Amino acid sequence: MMLSSRASHARPTPSQEVSLRETVAVFQREVEAHGVGPCTVRITRRRGWPDPQPVTEVVVQAGEVALMTRHRDAQQAVFRAFQAVLDRIE
Asked: What is the pTM of this model?
């Protein structure tokens, strides 16, 4: 998903939100397949710091492992959060 620099700070379109939900569901199943327990995900949009541009914050909790990432692109935030969790539990 490539967005122009102007659109990268806009809210996701409905089709992007569906794609993000599907991506999260696939990663949740992959994490839960490792037997660490249920995987919960919290995705929020926040004002960035020190830059005022909004960022997407993703918190992934799987069993006793909980990690958070922030990125301007929602897909990248999700990928990085799940990658960090998978690296930790493998």
From this structure: 0.75
- Residue 20 one-letter amino acid: L
Structural domains of the chain ordered from first start: 8-89 (3.30.160.20)
Determine the length of the chain. 90
Task: Give the tokens for residue 41.
Answer: 């995900």
For 90, residues 6+ apart whose C-beta sits below 8 A from its C-beta are 34
Burial class (CB in 10 A: 0-12, 13-18, 19+), 78: buried
Contact between 78 and 27 (Cβ < 8 Å): yes
- pLDDT higher for 3 or 90? 90
